[in-house]
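Throughout this chapter, every protein is written as a compact record of paired, labelled lines. An example of such a record is reproduced below:
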Amino acid sequence: METSSSFDEAGKNYQQTRKAHWDQIAQKRDAWKGLGGWYHQRLAEIYKFLISPKQSVLEIGCGTGDLLAQLNAARGVGIDFSGETIQRAKAKHPQLEFHQMDAHDLSELNGTFDTIILSDTINDLWDVQGALEQLKRFCTPRTRLIVNFYSHLWQIPLAAAQALNLATPLQPQNWLTPEDLVNMLRLAGFESIRAANEVLWPLPLGGFANKYLVKLLPFKNLALTNFIIARPAPQPAAQPSVSVVIAARNEAGNIKNIFERVPKMGSKTEIVFVEGHSKDNTYEAIEKEMPLHPATPSLLFRQPGIGKADAIRLGFEKATGDILMILDADLTVPPEDLPRFYEAIASGTGEFINGVRLVYPMEKEAMQTLNFIGNKLFSLTFSWLLGQPIKDTLCGTKVMWRKDYEQIAANRSYFGDFDPFGDFDLIFGAAKLNLKIVDLPIRYRERVYGSTNISRWKHGLLLLRMVAFAARRIKFV
């Protein structure tokens, strides 16, 4: 097959040499396995965590398709420029789709994909930026690009293993750094979401090192492979509609203010109230105000269960907007700030917008000192656990696309029903889906009516449980 017509002679020779090399490797592997099996087994475990089942997946440089075959894809497509390799892939995995193509020229491939993988392929390409640019036409705004590639630190150990015929021989490599690749992704029209270091011991008995030690300093700097997750550069959405979901318990004195202060956003803004077994007349106050504000579409429901998470889930289920917003009924986050959240998500700046109370100075009684210190410590911990900056986990104002919430809800069984707040259910779910999480600072205000439903010690202990939960289900997998 021909290489890209844009290559000069050096580029064409480079690709032809590699094609011949990988044809030979495919033939060699018919009778030789080497010691790479444990490494590839660990890679498969990581990719299965990163990619939800039943997605459409494209793998560039798929080899014999073993990784792709383990991902339970609704549609799995593998691309490789080695004819010998593709021949074996088709025989091993007839349920998948394989094509012999050059990563630099995918003009004959059609369709879009939820996830695109380049596993140990980037360092072997002649024109990395050009190959990445090829991928844009297979992307939707929600496509995730996942790349893993060897660390330069392992160049000598890998060369030694190859010389001893213990590892697959490689042609001279690019040996990109993570910073190099993030820059090339940006130039090619992609935005990096998060990065990780994986596989500390690519041999037997590496379970503890590869699951735990590699996530900690200084060991993570010694990892064999770098992972980067990216998305297509964001494009603004055209006037999406909005649902502002409000869990209201003992908030009768704030209802009139909510109707008067929630601004109009997008093509339509509705308010969805979920009243939660109030001891005051909150439900009646909402019923009274709804007909007094006919220009503001509004819905009212009685919460069947208990806890804020239960209320928000009902509100999200009943909401009709493209964008879902949570606003606390106590108005400690001013409704007038909601257009900032709208702009951040509608512009594509982020896909999950998280309110942050810990940047600006607070009004005197807005948050007690111990609560403030605790929130700061937990924000540092969760940022490390999730791999994206999260400065405030418990700010009530969070904004996301309805389609993303539907995916979070559909995959909720991975985490289970563990969170009475609802904040962690959404944050962990967004992180699991590799959404771009963006912190948005707001000025946190004092309550003007009622008292907080938060118990410092009880919920502080729950936060510690959330740390342990996130470590087990997100970080150390």
Remarks:
- The longest helix spans residues 9-28.
- The chain has two domains: 9-232, 242-475.
- The radius of gyration is 25 Å.
